[in-house]
Amino acid sequence: MSITGKAAIAGVYEHPLRLAPHKTQYQIMAESARGALEDAGLTLKDVDGLFTSGVGGMGIVSLAEHLNLYPDYLDSNSIGGSSFVSHTGHAAAAIAAGYCNVALILYGSTWSSDRFAIGTGGGGGSDPPEHFESTYGPTTVGDYALVAQRHMHEFGTTGAQLAEIAVTMRKHASLNPLAKFRDPITVEDVLASRVVSSPLHLLDCCMISDGGGAIVVTSAERARDLKKKPVSILSAAETCYHTSAGMRDLTNAAAKQSGPKALARAGLAHKDIDMAMIYDSFTITVCVTLESLGFCKKGEGGSFVQNGRIGLGGELPINTDGGGLSSNHPGMRGIFLVIEATKQLRGECGDRQVKDCQLALCHGTGGTLGLRHSGATLVLGV
Amino acid sequence: MAEEKKYKKPIPRVDEESRPFWEACARHELYVQKCRSCGKVFYYARSFCPEDLSQDLEWVKCSGKGKVYTFTVTRQNQGAGFRDNLPYVMAYVELDEGVRMLTNIVDCKPEEVKIGMPVEVTFEDATPEISIPLFRPAGK
Fold first, then answer.
1. Rounded mean pLDDT of chain A?
2. Among B49, B52, B72, which would you mutate to test the A interface (most chain A Cβ atoms within 10 Å of its Cβ)?
3. Chain A residues in contact with B115 (beta carbon < 8 A)
4. Per-domain residue ranges of chain B
């Protein structure tokens, strides 16, 4: 059974706040739910599928209680920042199978207000591999830096090439009224910013913000009669990648498995994609993800992102909202990949609109590229 | 008043799967595992082979030598035990036995660390029971 064309995104909402010390996580989720349901022309009573991540172990049940919902389908797949990209695919599958008809995907976070050091905390969990890692001080930034260092060594990728990614995201953010950082930056600015974990500079890293958002997915049939132009879910694929029992190849990411599979399931090729939303936790994430997805050859990510190719008007515009590097990053950014791609496909993006945008690819990375991570790819179209 | 703990970084948990590995480290010996059924050599410690789930495994004593596969000089980490020891070098070292393990490179200046650099194991005694395998430039 294929999900292609069976379900569609009917409503989206990106919470406008980047700092919300006066709000709770669940409040941000409720406000986002209202926004996305209004966007779709649906009400809370229509919702029969609930999806979330970034909550506690049974947080989705508390969320249902908070919203006074009794959904027929619950999914709090928690695979890091990519979770919401994964949820969108899962929602389409659940709808195609008839298990629910209106799925609500929610995210809310106050990690900036909470002063949570996502990128530079010490910490460490208690899963088996972590007992062989935590004592060595693997920060999130450090884990990605391991990949950047190896990429530079193996392929000659330069700091200036990675910086180009941050510069492009900032350029896009300048066209997004909601983006947190909108002042232009240069390659020199990125290279002159302090090194957090070599070779990654501060401006190679995404920000920490508050925020949240919501997505409403329903059947293609129902979406046709709703307020907004339906955005069809064409395919989804996901996987994970890890230290491979000691045989880790740091220059590959989970996207290598999920990307080609998602395109094949949609019956599409790379050249068909009009724009892409690529999780940009760090500049290196974009570089390695583009290679792993197959938009360029392995090792060529550095040159691929140069000369405006990934900017508006380029061959493959990516992260037109400004990404986690410049728009927002409340800890898990996957939901914003799907929201921005949906807005682009509906032609609602104003100054940052990609011309004739009909097919978009989203790829979320959750966890860290250098240790273990998940990858979720989603192909959308109108 | 209790004496302040000397080793403030997270201390690995010793469990039924990892006990032989950590007992060897306490003797300042580094071991990886090999599956007698399929021949796979692997790290980190498990009670089964991650290739074929066989439990017929042997412990292989490592030469303790390897090369830096990649590294990062971390300049910011608020975690206990790390914030007072900045900057530090975190690396993957590829052991001569073929597996890559996360570790720290010590006993040299961070700017001296290069990919491909030959290194050898050394141990830091975190507690009387736990010693942490670290690496330093070979022959230093």
1. 96
2. B72
3. 149-150, 153
4. 19-137
User: What are the tens digits of pLDDT across the range A170-224?
Assistant: 999 999 999 999 999 999 999 999 999 999 999 999 999 999 999 999 999 999 9
Q: Shortest CB distance from B79 goes to which of A133, A137, A195?
A: A137
**Rounded to a whole number, what is the distance in Å from the CA of A252 to chain B's nearest CA?**
14
Nearest CA in chain B to A201: B75
pLDDT digits (tens, 9 = 90+) for A321-333: 999 999 999 999 9
Residue A334 has pLDDT above 80, yes or no: yes
Instruction: List the domain boundaries for chain A.
Output: 7-114+210-230, 128-206+236-381
Interatomic CA distance for residues A268 and A263, integer angstroms: 5
Alpha-carbon distances, residue A25 vs A77, A212, A330 (angstroms): 18, 8, 11
Task: Please give the backbone phi and psi of residue B77, each rounded to the nearest 5 degrees, phi first.
Answer: -160, 115
Q: How many CB pairs under 8 A join A and B?
A: 137
Quick check: A371 contacting B, CB < 8 Å?
yes
Question: In chain B, whose CA is at the least distance from the CA of A202?
Answer: B76
With both helix axes pointing from N to C terminus, report the angle between A283-293 and A140-155 in degrees, rounded to the nearest 10.
Answer: 60
As beta bridge partners, residue A220 has: none
* Level-2 CATH architecture, domain A128-206+236-381: 3-Layer(aba) Sandwich (3.40)
Judge whether B88 is closer than 8 Å to chain A, CB to CB.
yes
pLDDT in tens, A220-242: 999 999 999 999 999 999 999 99
pLDDT band at B2, cuts 50/70/90?
A: low
Contacting residues of B for A145, CB less than 8 Å apart? 72, 74
Nearest CB to A198 within list B9, B46, B72: B72
Right CATH for A7-114+210-230 from 1.10.1760.20, 3.30.930.10, 3.40.47.10, 3.40.190.150: 3.40.47.10
- A211 sits in the region (left: phi over 0; alpha: psi -120 to 50; else beta) called left
How far is A286 from A140, CA to CA, in rounded Å?
15
DSSP structure class, residue A318: B
Cβ contact, residue pair B72, A145, below 8 Å: yes
B17-73 pLDDT, tens digit per residue, is 999 999 999 999 999 999 999 999 999 999 999 999 999 999 999 999 999 999 999
Q: Which residues of chain B lie closer than 8 angstroms to A121, CB-CB?
A: 77-79
Give the closest-approach CA distance of B102 to chain A in angstroms: 6
Residues of chain A above pLDDT 70, percent: 99
In the stretch 9-48 of chain B, residues with CB closer than 8 A to chain A read 9-13, 15, 17-18, 32, 40-46
Residue-wise DSSP of A91-103: HHHHHHTTS-SEE
Query: Could you tell me how many residues make up chain B?
Result: 140
For residue B1, the model assigns a pLDDT of 46
pLDDT digit string, tens, across residues A47-71: 999 999 999 889 999 999 999 999 9
The answer to whether the bond into B69 is cis (omega within 30° of 0) is no
